[in-house]
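Researcher: Before we compare anything, I want clean individual predictions. No alignment, no superposition, just each chain on its own. First chain goes here; please echo the sequence and then give the structure tokens.
Model: Echoing the first chain and its structure:
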Amino acid sequence: MSSHHSHAQAVLAVVHEPGGARPGAPLVFELCGPLGAAEAEAVADRVAARHRAYTVTLDDDGTGRRLVRLAPTGTASGERPPALSADLLADLLAPLSAGTVPVTGYQRELLLAAVTRQGGPGRHIEQLCWNWTGPLDTTRFTAAWHSVADRETVLRASFDWTGAPLLVLHDHAPIEVVRHRHATVAWSELLRRDRLRGFELHRPGLLRVTLLDGPPQRSAPARGPGHGPGPGPLPGTRAATGPAPTRVLLSYHSALLDGRGAHLLVREFYRAYLADGVVPGGERRPDIRDHAAWLQGRDTEAARRYWAAAAPPADAAVRPGRDGGRTRFTGAGRIQRRLRPHQTSRLRSWAALWGAGESSALHVVWALLLYRAADARGPVPVSFGVHFSGRDLTLEGAADVPGLLGNPLPMTVTVDPAAPLVDLLRQVRDAALDLSSYPWVSGDRILQWSGREEAARLADTLVRFDSRPELPEVLRAELKAQGIQVDVPQSASGDTSLPVTLVAQYDADGGLLLTATYDRAELSDADASGVLSQCMELLRRLSDQQDERVTVGQVLGLLESGEVPRMARQGRRPRTVALAVLRPGGPHADVVCLVAVPGVPPGVYESLVQEYEGPERIVSLSLAGDVRTPPSALPELLGPGRRLVLCGCGPAGRVAYEIAQGTAARTATATTVVMTGIGGVSESARALARALESVRARTV
């Protein structure tokens, strides 16, 4: 392993004393880590390049400590020094790698849901599977995926959520390929195990491939003349029929890629496999770096004005079920229904008759179901998320960039039972056209621009119409020339950060396949099945509505005999503060307070307590629900002469800093803060220990 790669995997730590500094004084951070002079310079250079509001210098205080000083430029006399921002903390503690780029707004939402373990294990993992018939050279197969990773930046990315969430770009990344022989594991068990295994998001390699060999097909007894059409084999011989297809499972994290991006990577892999495991050409551009730069160059004024008016009103109907009791279930559920090809064709023709597409027909049906669940009377605004892939941006080449470029945007329409159905169809069509101008606008920006509170949810459901890139005929022909046939990859699982996500896509026969993924804590299996069955019923019946005078109310009447599904209403997560002594420490030793918030890697603090041999008293302060402990809760931990050292790993670092600021303001004494980046359990614990040793050395 190269030294560059070793440092890229190391976890950095800083020691800082917030508050108590004179006005205009610089922010001073001691760098703690396995850093040489060159690496320390790299950290300082990174901060200087991205934070022009500071003059950044790297000093040695004479004791071997490396200090990064950030002197504010333009701070007026008497002003307090600026606070530590999430962006600054991220750049101080991000891994030393090939580079970083900010995540998109939607990536941020998915990443934070994953690292705070919302929904339990197995969530946020996407799986594609298909059959591979013909020769499969495992060595060549693996080399082809490694070649794709060398070419595609997104496959060499990991995540950092210490401060402002980042994509960390590495020079190299492993792509795990594992092949199982037939009968060593059942397919359903393989899928289940793979989902539960998840990914370590701080490490590159957030895509893996698993192969499961099929059984060798039994050879058939030789048939003599008269036993079937055509000449049979010679008497006494057996006709070999060859092996069954190998099943291919591609797994990736939903915060890294969307479905289209995964299909683009599969297409690239085929090219590499056909070229003996090496994809032609070098690193491809544009990529996620170019997309990030494109986003930063957007003029947001027009989008701000649009969303200030177009954001869903607070009273919009958004839930697919009426209020019901708790489901007593957890995890994600998944069900599918299918429109047959001739039914799909009729739906397409009906929508085209009124100047719309079948995606608009699906949006109409979903709006009707939300209206019905609201038990409304008269015109009511209805809102649901619509996913835009972001592949039609003005960024040249965006259509072929693998990544997560798109965004779910809230579509709001007015459902009026007395209005003609075709008016609602045109309304959703026009709304989608308006939204298509803003696929780069994230939900948090919409909340901000529309004056909604940050924790609000813009929609409870998401409708996504998937369009995957076709495998070029020339590529399929080249595979066939080598005796290889491959199916179109199909989704084997899915996840939803909302109560319900509905995905529509065409199958190989031209039928419309609908997959509903739902949160079983909010929607029971029976109620989810009811929602999707009623959706299918309306889609089948829409093509019968040929008269433009048919009203919305008449179409709703088609479901009159069906029961309205029920849905549990989830409350906000409770705000909690828990204080516990993990190690009593010496009678006059300092107090180390380990701040725990959602997103801290599990096991880091436990590992520190076991491995760190310092004399300090060690306590934990666990916070949940965006609460910040009042400084008055901390003095009881301190006795005469004790110093408080607040420690935070990853996202807890900035919380520890905020607590220290409040403590300093209240007690007029400086509190030391130790903040680390994110890595594996042992790496993160060692980073904390190194910083604590440096703090202790100051008073020895």
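Researcher: Okay. Second chain, same rules.
Model: Second chain and its structure:
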Amino acid sequence: MKGKYWTGLVSVIIGIGGVYLLCQSKTIYGGDAGDLASAIVTKGVAHPPGYPLYTSLGIIFAEFIKNGTAAWKIGFLSSLSSLLSAVILFDIFYFLTKKIVPSLLTVFIFAFLYPVWLYSEVVEVFALNNLFTVLLLWLAFRLYSQKKRKYLFAAFFILGLSLTHHHIIVFLIPTLFYLMWRGRIKVTFGNTAKGVLLFFLGFIPYFYVIISSFYNPPVNWQGAPTFANFFALITRAGYGTFQAGSFVGHQPVLRLINIYGFLDFVYRDFRILGLILIILGIVFLYKLNRTVWIAVGIGIISYLFFLFYASFPLSENFMLGTFERFVQPLYILLSFYLLFGIVGFEKILFRVFMYISKPYKARTFAQLGLFLVSIYPAGLFILNYPKINSLKNDFTAENLGRDILNSVPKDAVLIISTDTPLFNTQYVYYTEKKWPEVKLIHLTKLYTSYYKDQLKKHYPELLLPPEDVSPKDKFYSLVYQNYGRFPIFSKQPFGDSSGEWLVNGLLFRYFDHKDIPQDEEIYNLNNKLWSIYHDPYSGSLAKYNNLLLSDVLRVYSLSHQEFGYWLARRNYTADAEKHLLLAEKYYPDDLDSYAILAQTYMLQKKCREAEEQVNEMIKRDKDLANAYLLLSLNYSVCFNDSGKASYFREIYEEKIRSKETDLKKL
């Protein structure tokens, strides 16, 4: 049997490891990847909770791997972590079942589930978190069955170490304690003291944060190495420790949507066959090993509580992509049920064949029938391979960063916020080093107590807001003090009585009222910029809607919309139509594009086209009052049909009254 075990193990290493290495991405994917990679490249501190272990390992990988892009070198940490997770999972599964084929099948199924495979190929922290989850489960099961203290001490250390990586690991603790309790592990004062010591020794990687912040690198989310700053970083004080962010909703119904969202992800990723095997596994595991059944169930309930509490607003692709990353620990636990579902399927086949043949033949037929289950991981591979492999050479996220940086003169002040434009630009800025005189400023950090020192160090030529300026005035102070010294750009416009933020491709440029250029100059500049920008559909997004990456489409769409609006107001209607249609194509959920284009068509007396745009708005939101106002306007000024104009005006007014009534009830 040992020979079969080693054959299985080698199969996992070669099969899964080979695929992961083949598909490993040379680029950043989106989401937090740009910030994580930038922190590694600059030897800085990533966004809270800092990810010191991941950053330290990333620096080592980036330094010692000589070939490949920065993203590929850092991403290798994800591939390696996922391969090790698969190896350890195979050992756990074989340890629990003593069956090679079900263990192999389950590991390959898990490895080729879309989110697991995706985050095994890109720069992100979740593959390493999976490795810690699997390793702690391995130690817990060994401790439960063998009751050796070395597993207890190792678990304490690994738990502490894992907390320097991602806080979500704490939701595995109930499962770990249950297995320790069921194993009747004797807890003495000496064992406890040694375990606690090892637990805190696992926190050693956090020294990296203190040392790095002492040098105040350009990517530094902690600021000065003070206790207050350190505590705020590791507790994610600005986000909420176990919440998606400060924007979360607290209504129970909205939180329950996260549970529904998880079930929807399970259905889409595991497919019908996987769900059947999981349900079958729940039944068989209950009969075969009640302790493992309860341990896995506790873990699932614990992580479901996390999803409930974190309260991700699942309203758009970016947040769905963020949510997608956090289902992976639950997928690890579900794979235990899946394993016993396959074991149960084999037992059912054996019993069926026992009725029609001799026992030895029944066993052979059952094993042959079991190989039919291999269609399942093969099917997942065939289904997900094109989606994953298309990201290997997809530079869509980086191209957005390049387009943003190529929108400004060489000495510009560039102010950006929000993950997709900021982190992608940040990665290109720090890895390619082609824009040394551009001053890249993180808008949100401008309101922190520590960011001023970073700006002083890295951009000494900037004039910074005085100490007595209120937080809300810091941005305007920075703009006014440096206007005339440097061209100033932002990803979003701001209301300003002293000047105006004019559309500048993917950005906006600030001008004092006396310096505002002629419309023709702005028109020509924007056309030139859009002619050199990349098409976000030139990569994988033309075929596959990979969630986090698809947020790039939203960024381009909003900029097309802004320029289209500017063009329409100045009667460049043909150009406005072109940009607004692209805005709709890239991000069809933004109804403002339809509204602006409808009015643009009205200006051109294209009444039917205007009506089609408004009808599309109503199709997407039948209670949108302004859509009926636009219909009224279209029939009034374009069709010259006062009767229908009045009819739609009445519907608009009724919708407004209905909303006012609902608000009063609320």
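Researcher: What stands out in the second chain?
Model: The radius of gyration is 29 Å. Additionally, Residues 662-666 have pLDDT under 50 and may be disordered.
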